[in-house]
Amino acid sequence: MAEIDDFVYVFIIAVIVLAIFGIISFVSPWFAPVNNVTVASLSVGEVGAVTDYAARSIDLRTFTVGQEQTESLVSSPELEISRGWFGGNDEVFSIVVPDYYLETARGVRVSFNVYDSNRYANLKFKWNGVVVEENDYDGGFHSFLVGREDVKPSNTLTVMCDGPGMMFWASTVYQLKNFNVNLEYGPERVIPFEMLPSEMQSFERIEVSFFTTGTGTLEVKTNGVSVFQGHPNGAGTVSFNLFDAPVWSGQNIMTFIDRDGTYTLQDTRVKIFLATSNVKVTRGFNMSQENYNLMLQGFQGRVNFFVDNVASPGSLEIALNDHIIPVSTPQVGWNTASFTSGDAVVGENTVTFSGTGNYQITSARIELER
Predict the structure, then answer these.
(1) What is the CA radius of gyration of the chain?
(2) DSSP letters spanning 268-316
(3) DSSP reduced 3-state for 101
(4) What percent of the chain has pLDDT over 90?
């Protein structure tokens, strides 16, 4: 009987011990020390000094130098011109021809398709108030040229028609499609382009790239100054800076010339390169009161960031809420910069990456570590 009592006592003690360990294992996670807290994950990108980069690209596509050129002045998919006893519908266009086109202008061509018309009266075209063309056009494509002598920097084109005469109950109607007013000039190709004041402050160079085939001598001018003259075949590049030709804020003119043949330029692009610029990247994150309290209790703040590529060596500067925090020379891979509770605040914070080197930073994490 005593042996049974001893076994019961041992069994009860074992159950109590197991229960105690179970309670400890259940409660212990709630009291375990916190060693690492991630406050925020951020994307960053390219940071620091960017040297000689293409700020803007202008796509000129394909054109041929050494033959007649055209420049669109007005384009409308559809017009309806009408006139009856009690009124009608005219179309009036203001047409501006810039000076740089007027020098080699041959005239202005008006073209259209007559989609439908009852031809009760003539369709009329007035150029600067003077009738330059009229007809009771039948269906199909039509065009006429306004001579160079009548083309001014500022012009007015009126498209109208006469009424139906004695048929007071009817209206003359012309339905036009693919209505176009094109300037004919050449044989050089004129390309205007704008330079912004901010671009001029750090202007480095302009680069013109193309793929060309042709005969004769191709010349490229910028604002009247030749920047290239030769016989390119295949892929070609023309590069120039302020020492080679004038470039100024506002409108500039690039001219492609071939006086003794023709050159076709395909995939033509003008790239405007600017000199060194410091790229700063600023990101925001929220620091909760609980996380800030951890810092007051001795946790160290960390900006852990991953450098994917170092394009050029130099310093990297990280500022937390305008407080500069120390950064060692970054290497490819994970890097760390530390901050204290005096650098951070409860609520919204900003972290800014900049520097004299050039770094591609894939991502960054704001973390608290014990």
Answers:
(1) 38
(2) EEEEEEE--EEE-EEEEEEE-HHHHHHHHTTPEEEEEEEEEEEEE---E
(3) helix
(4) 75
Is pLDDT of 8 > 70?
Answer: no
Domain identity same for 197 and 168? no
Indicate if 79 and 125 belong to the same structural domain: yes
- Same domain for 263 and 286, yes or no, is no
Across the range 348-352, mean pLDDT stands at 96
Identify the three-state secondary structure at position 167.
Answer: coil
Distance CA 304, CA 58 (A): 39
In total, the chain counts a number of residues equal to: 370
Nearest to 253 by CA among 222, 280, 276, 277: 222
pLDDT of residue 199: 87
253: amino acid identity, one letter:
I
- For residue range 257-295, what is the model confidence (pLDDT) as tens digits? 998 999 999 999 999 998 877 789 999 999 999 999 999
Domain boundary among 185, 209, 237: 185
> What is the band of 6 on the pLDDT scale with cuts at 50, 70, 90?
low
Residue 33, preceding peptide bond in cis (omega within 30° of 0): no
What is the distance between the alpha carbons of residues 354 and 335, in angstroms, rounded to a whole number? 15
Domain that holds residue 116: 69-185
Decide: helix, strand or coil at residue 19: helix
Domain boundary among 242, 274, 306: 274
Residues 6+ apart with CB under 8 A from 97: 73, 105, 108, 151, 152, 153, 154, 155, 183
